[in-house]
Amino acid sequence: MSVAAPVHAPEAQAPPVRSGRVVRLGRVSGVVRWRDLAVPLVALIALVLVSAVSMGRGDFPIGVVDVLRTLAGLGEGPQEFIVLELRAPRVVVGVLVGLALGMAGALFQTFARNPLASPDTLGITTGASAGAVAAIVLSGGTSAGAVLGGLGIPLAALLGALTTGFLLFLLTWRAGIDGYRLVLVGIALWAMGTALTDWLLTNAEIYDAASAYVWITGSLNARTWDDALPLALALVVLLPAALATSRLLAVLQFGDDTARGLGVRLAPTQTAVVLLAVGLVAFAVSAAGPIAFVSLIVPQIAVRLTGGARPPLLASGLLGALLVVGADLVTRTVLPEALPVGILTAAIGAPYLLWLLVRGRRRFT
Predict the structure, then answer these.
(1) How many CA atoms, within 13 angstroms, populate the side-chain half-sphere of residue 191?
(2) CA 222 to each of CA 44, 94, 133, 284: distance values in angstroms, whole numbers, following the listed order
(3) What's the pLDDT tens digit per position in 85-119?
(4) What's the CA gap between 135 and 120, in Å, rounded?
(5) How far is the C-alpha of 126 from the C-alpha of 289, rounded, in Å?
(6) What is the DSSP annotation of 160-193?
(7) What are the extents of the domains in the chain?
(8) CA 65, CA 52: separation in Å to the nearest integer?
(9) What is the widest separation between alpha-carbon atoms in the chain?
(10) Residue 148 has what pLDDT?
């Protein structure tokens, strides 16, 4: 019951109204606020610089300027091979995964009006982990395992995430989707996915269990352009569609009854938001494993930086990319030994989750 406390609190009051400049383009008008533009711009610049630093670190160090020149097509032969073929795929996958997870977290938290709503707590990443672990552990052992093994780990993870997302949608739907019910059903699915993963690991051979543990921590190690391409193609469709829901999400913040009164078709809008968020998470996890807590903490950082009433989608995506690439750089260069990036993001996100729970309990009491 302690988790349910923060759910109803945001619905009791309307989001604060912030001042800004009204911009009109024909029949379309909107309010533009400088922080809504400044935060994504600064995040984008920081992301480019951190990505360049990451591409330059390794056994053959390359300066940031030389990395940027190489990316612009002005590099020399050896540098082009090292940057574009060996190091760029890892960074690009990190950027795309961070974008997807950050925007998915913003969609879930805005829709549910709950800062605890994220793919991690709703069981979607756990479902992806169960699918990937099943592909690793059961491959060749049974007919179902042979099918999963034939799909490969990324596709098995994608299937597990989509299946969990479908169950989340199916069990939550009651002539619409309620944010309170969404969180409760998600926690139940998370518990089921965790239990299934633990059972698979308990019955696995030692070498299969070791391989599975590496994947479920979330890592960018040994990523290639083959890992980046499917994710990039998916995001070409999903990211613009998610950004297109921004105005509808702003209306949903005022509650379901108000949204209906303002002419929003509630059921189709809710369905589209949930499906977009599940799709973003599914493809991100299939590419790099379940990198923990990115989608939980990044939207809340973005909403505090922009000073808004809800997590901004674009800023959340760019900050998510910055967090993933920056955490990967830290694990490779600062820590005594290289670790999967998911370990560092979990070390950051777990205390934040505890703070959210304590803060919500204090509000309730």
Answers:
(1) 5
(2) 25, 12, 19, 16
(3) 889 999 999 999 999 999 999 998 888 888 888 88
(4) 21
(5) 10
(6) HHHHHHHHHHHHHBSSSB-HHHHHHHHHHHHHHH
(7) 31-119+222-364
(8) 8
(9) 64
(10) 55
Give the mean model confidence (pLDDT) for residues 129-149: 69
pLDDT digits (tens, 9 = 90+) for 292-302: 889 988 998 89
Residue 283 region by backbone torsions, left for phi larger than 0, else alpha for psi between -120 and 50, else beta: alpha
Residue 16, pLDDT above cutoff 60: no
Handedness of CA 46, 216, 7, 363 (dihedral sign): negative
| CA distances in angstroms from 157 to 32, 44, 58, listed in the order given | 39, 29, 30
Contacts of 353 (CB under 8 A, 6+ apart): 116, 121, 293, 296
Tell me how long the chain is. 365
- Residue 144 sits at the vertex; the CA angle it makes with 143 and 150, to the nearest 5 degrees, is 90
How many other C-beta atoms are found inside a 10 Å radius of the C-beta of residue 44? 15
- DSSP symbols for 301-364: HHHHHHT-SS--HHHHHHHHHHHHHHHHHHHHHTSSS---HHHHHHHHHHHHHHHHHHHHHHHH
In contact, 100 and 283? CB cutoff 8 Å: yes
**The domain over range 31-119+222-364 is classified in CATH as 1.10.10.10:** no
- Read off the pLDDT band of 48 (50, 70, 90): very high
User: Mean pLDDT throughout 6-10?
Assistant: 42
DSSP assignments along 14-54, one per residue: PPPP---EEEEETTEEEEE-HHHHHHHHHHHHHHHHHHHHH
**Mean of pLDDT values over 257-263:** 74
